[in-house]
Amino acid sequence: MNENLFASFITPTMMGLPIVVLIIMFPGMLFPSTTRLINNRLVSIQQWLIRMTTKQMMSIHNKKGQTWALMLMSLIMFIGSTNLLGLLPHSFTPTTQLSMNLGMAIPLWAGTVILGFRHKTKASLAHFLPQGTPLPLIPMLVIIETISLFIQPMALAVRLTANITAGHLLIHLIGGATLALMSISMTTAFITFVILVLLTVLEFAVALIQAYVFTLLVSLYLHDNA
Amino acid sequence: MEVPLKEKRLMEVKLGELPSWIMMRDFTPKGIAGAFQRGYHRYYNKYINVKKGGVAGVSMVLAAYVFFNYCRSYKELKHERRRKYH
After folding, report:
1. What own/partner pairs with CB < 8 Å and gap ≥ 24 does A197-202 have?
2. Which distant-in-sequence residues (6+ apart) come within 8 Å of A90 by Cβ?
3. pLDDT tens for residues B27-43?
4. pTM for this prediction
5. How far is it, in rounded angstroms, from Cα B62 to Cα A13?
6. CB distance B53–A42 less than 8 Å?
7. Chain B residues with CB within 8 Å of chain A CB
8. Non-local CB neighbours of A20 within 8 Å, separated by 6+ positions
9. What is the ipTM score, two decimals?
């Protein structure tokens, strides 16, 4: 059972070809473009959702920060749709791979930091020292703030990976337990099944929330620095 | 009016002419990309680009995705069938 448990997290290759590329590009196919003024019903729903999210997330930024709207909106749509598609049976979720999440987190975080350094050099350096610290504590505090700055991209990536992977593993385990319990005692199996249903509902929420959190944090780092 | 074999549609090709019709199709990368584009637009315009599209159009795509992943991982799933002795 141990080998089966992690088999769904292996990067899919078919006859040596990395079809993981196709799987990563698949959610893009599910968002048709809005070509006309009044579109069909599905595209109008999608348009309304994206507009609502954009207004919610980009209202806190100044003019300069709002140029990041396209990037942040594509980010939340990509992570949300990839996580939700991973809840379908037998599918592979690219966001369970740490490599991909690091690839998303590090460039975005580095972009916000470099932006802050270039445009507001004094203010972004001043972040390293909170106001009102007693004089002897200053060297140690600068070191601590530097460490906390550099841990931001790692935390972003690991948070997303760990949450999604843990959720998938729990579903596998509890589903396997329900199946095994069916031949032993129906009542216990039923209780386990109810737990499985609740867990699946939680996973739907987690899928969306993780996307939101990732984007929100990047947007927060942007707000500090631009 | 006689349509040349190269330009006949699949349903109009006679059974004896089928192998030669298949050989005449365009298998260059541009041709294959064109085939994918045509297929995508056929599906999109029939099921999604309608005034009152519903859940059926999207769920057919998702069902095909689930089936594709099932085929991809069949080799590992073979061992998990319900049997008395594994």
Report:
1. A199/A167, A199/A170, A199/A171, A199/A174, A200/A87, A200/A171, A202/A167
2. A8, B66, B69, B70, B72, B73, B77
3. 788 888 888 888 888 88
4. 0.84
5. 20
6. yes
7. 40, 44, 48-54, 57-58, 61-62, 65-66, 69-70, 72-73, 76-77, 79-80
8. A11, A12, A13, A92, A94
9. 0.81
